[in-house]
């Protein structure tokens, strides 16, 4: 760490803190947990994970993409303390994956499946936050809102959709060209709007008070430790704990490594950060979060890109943002308690929209069936069956599409009058037999069949048997064979 870079790192750390603060609070609230849990996770990510991470610019903390997994996992396990045990196991598993150098296998996950996973997370996030944006009770579902069973709050809607308008405005060239406004994060302005509405609403319309976050105040170290949740180690006998642990480890690792890949394009590092070291750092962070009562941690591309664009030069900016989160949680909880839930819902709704933007669906559909079908299968699978099953379904569909495309291109038949050319483009296995039978059936009597097989270094015995049978019948049909790949009797 170079102290000469503090001039750039201190402003960058302040900007990252202003972006991370509403996200940490909002993600915890969206997960059905106290906002303090989000701050705790942000502190662990900003201080512990950053110290161990090989990246100088990656910001770690609670991720919006894991909200739906956290909510579903707590519901299936029955308690937050049982979920914390799964998080501890997930951290251990991530450390083991890092030791085993499994980071390189991120390249095996198809891009269409990754995009489908992010889009599904965005859709789930929007579905979860819409009732809060309309002022419904926190436990209300989107279906209750649509069916008219839920309650509405005009003030909450004004705050939420006003915040969304500000977040959209902050991405326009008008704001970006203004240096003073460009340095102020859009989420911070959206939250400040909500705070102003809360203060004015309490004074002018006390009966219409907005629901807001509730951070505890700490007057002693004992009060702080009493707020920390502990994992329920007696839940180790529950098989669902291990399913949740594997899901958390895989999805958190996937999101972290994807963020690292995206960060390389924004700010290359030489040598590039080791994905295995990053997984070990994230594993330690999730292990601590599980022991202390936090949320799952990942490297987050939104905060990382803000860190880079703000001019960060070293890890000091990320460490500073972690210190500021810690100070806020310990000594400024009263100020943070003015933030309404509707403002945090606006920040998360905008995050969900960016993950599941209509442009992404249009681009995938235009890319052809080989990209669009696995993408849509992943989205549908996650929405219907859960994260791990949806990703598995997407990968399976991608494999089937790749096999189909490979089979279509492995064998090609071209006609030149009474001459036919069968081109074998790659090695053939027994799975190519149906396609081979189809093409050979198109060869008429009294014709010439030429086989080009220079690109095939291996032909499966079952394929050779099909070719041999055709070769034995060819003389009787008046078919002359040229460059036949199997011996003729």
Could you write a compact summary of the structure shown?
The chain is mainly alpha-helical and 489 residues long. The chain has helices spanning 6-30, 35-52, 67-77, 80-99, 111-133, 142-146, 154-169, 173-177, 179-182, 186-204, 221-227, 239-266, 275-292, 301-309, 316-331, 333-336, 341-355, 358-366, 369-385, 387-410, 433-440, 461-477; strands at residues 59-62, 297-300, 411-416, 419-424, 448-452, 480-482.
Helices and strands in order:
Elements: H1 6-30, H2 35-52, E1 59-62, H3 67-77, H4 80-99, H5 111-133, H6 142-146, H7 154-169, H8 173-177, H9 179-182, H10 186-204, H11 221-227, H12 239-266, H13 275-292, E2 297-300, H14 301-309, H15 316-331, H16 333-336, H17 341-355, H18 358-366, H19 369-385, H20 387-410, E3 411-416, E4 419-424, H21 433-440, E5 448-452, H22 461-477, E6 480-482
Parallel strand pairs: 4-5, 5-6
Antiparallel strand pairs: 1-2, 3-4
Key structural traits:
489 residues; mainly alpha; Transcription Regulator spoIIAA; 4-stranded mixed β-sheet; two-stranded antiparallel sheet; 22 helices; 6 strands; elongated
């Amino acid at each position: 760490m170079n102290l000469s870079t503090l001039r750039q790192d201190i402003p960058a750390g302040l900007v990252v803190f202003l972006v991370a603060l509403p996200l940490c609070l909002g993600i915890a609230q969206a997960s059905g947990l106290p906002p303090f849990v989000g701050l705790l996770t942000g502190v662990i990510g900003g201080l512990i994970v950053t110290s161990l991470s090989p990246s100088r610019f990656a910001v770690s903390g609670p991720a919006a993409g894991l909200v739906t997994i956290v909510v579903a996992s707590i519901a299936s396990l029955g308690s937050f303390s049982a979920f914390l045990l799964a998080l501890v196991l997930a951290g251990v598993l991530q450390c083991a994956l890092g030791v085993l150098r499994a980071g390189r296998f991120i390249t095996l996950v198809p891009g269409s499946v990754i995009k489908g996973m992010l889009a599904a997370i965005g859709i789930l996030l929007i579905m979860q936050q819409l009732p809060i944006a309309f002022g419904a009770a926190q436990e209300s579902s989107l279906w209750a809102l649509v069916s008219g069973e839920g309650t509405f709050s005009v003030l909450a809607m004004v705050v939420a959709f006003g915040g969304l308008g500000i977040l959209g405005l902050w991405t326009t060239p008008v704001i970006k060209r203004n240096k003073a406004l460009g340095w102020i994060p859009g989420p911070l302005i959206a939250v400040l709007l909500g705070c102003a509405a809360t203060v004015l609403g309490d004074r002018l319309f006390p009966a219409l008070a907005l629901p807001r976050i509730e951070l505890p105040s700490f007057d002693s170290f004992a009060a702080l430790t009493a707020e920390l949740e502990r994992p329920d180690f007696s839940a180790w006998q529950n098989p669902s704990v291990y399913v949740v642990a594997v899901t958390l480890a895989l999805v958190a690792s996937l999101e972290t490594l994807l963020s690292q890949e995206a960060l390389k394009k924004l700010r290359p590092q030489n040598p590039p950060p080791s994905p295995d070291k990053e997984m070990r750092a994230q594993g330690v962070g999730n292990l601590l979060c599980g022991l202390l009562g936090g949320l799952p941690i990942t490297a987050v591309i939104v905060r990382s890109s803000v860190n880079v664009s703000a001019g960060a030069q070293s890890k000091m900016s990320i460490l500073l943002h972690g210190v500021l989160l810690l100070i806020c949680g310990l000594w400024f909880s009263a100020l943070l308690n003015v933030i309404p839930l509707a403002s945090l819902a606006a920040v998360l709704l905008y995050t969900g929209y960016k993950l599941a933007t209509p442009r992404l669906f249009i681009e995938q559909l235009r890319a052809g069936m080989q990209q669009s079908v696995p993408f849509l299968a992943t989205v549908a699978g996650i929405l219907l069956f859960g994260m791990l099953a949806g990703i598995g379904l997407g990968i399976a569909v991608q494999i089937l599409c790749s096999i189909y495309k490979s089979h279509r291109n492995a064998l090609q038949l071209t006609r030149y009058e009474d001459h036919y050319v069968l081109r074998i483009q790659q090695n053939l296995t027994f799975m190519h037999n149906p396609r081979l039978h189809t093409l050979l059936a198109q060869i008429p009597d009294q014709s010439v069949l030429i086989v080009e097989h220079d690109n095939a270094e291996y032909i499966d015995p079952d394929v050779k048997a099909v070719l041999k049978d055709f070769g034995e019948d060819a003389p009787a049909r008046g078919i002359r064979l040229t460059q036949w790949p199997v011996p003729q009797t």
